[in-house]
Amino acid sequence: MCGRYATTRSEADLSLLFDAVTVAEALGPSWNVAPTDPVPVVRQSQRHDARVVDTARWGLLPPWAKDPRAGSRMINARAETVATSPAFAPSFQRRRCLVPADGWFEWVRDGGKRQAYYMTPADSSVLAFAGIWTMWREETLTCSVLTTAALGDLAAVHDRMPLILPRERWSAWLAGGGDAPALLEPLSPAELAAIEVRPVRPDVGNVRNNGPELVTAAEPAVAPEATLF
């Protein structure tokens, strides 16, 4: 799963990177995004007839959800079932988005020890997580991040990872419709190899901590080959 990630680029920077119009509120950088936090997303807007950088609550709330707390259980949608799940399929068909990120966190456990790892592009480029969105009660934009089976070195940290879309696939993803298997293809081996697996301090485990020190490399207490958390 992807339960914590970092997104630190400004709305203006995201507009340039994604060739989009900004309609989002100013959120500021976050090195420790947690479920139900407001996050930037890029989606296709009929109203603006363009891509827009918007703000969404992380954790999809289907229109029939009665309690906003339900979103904390729907931060991720599995790529293997997103096209058929009653909660996620309508958004997958018509309301897809990109979720900009610098990288994401996972944990490895070995006995009583627990080590956080940060996965991030070695060249510091932006990541675009495949996302879906919907409106809850016609006033709250909410989203989920798609996950897929982890591959390569990333599988030594966790068995799942965000579905990451390279730039050449952004337009097809945002367009809606399309061939599901092609849309849900994982990264190529070369693209996966460009992602660094970085041990970091345990501070990220506390949602109240938020700063660039959370993504700074640290001496690992647990190697990635230990038991997956």
From TrEMBL:
Belongs to the SOS response-associated peptidase family. GO terms for biological process: protein-DNA covalent cross-linking repair; proteolysis. One of its GO terms (molecular function) is single-stranded DNA binding. The keyword Lyase applies. InterPro entries: SRAP (IPR003738), SRAP-like (IPR036590). Its EC number is 3.4.-.-. It is an enzyme of class 3 (hydrolase). This is Abasic site processing protein. Keywords: Covalent protein-DNA linkage, DNA damage, DNA-binding, Hydrolase, Lyase, Protease. The keyword Hydrolase applies. Pfam families: SRAP (PF02586).
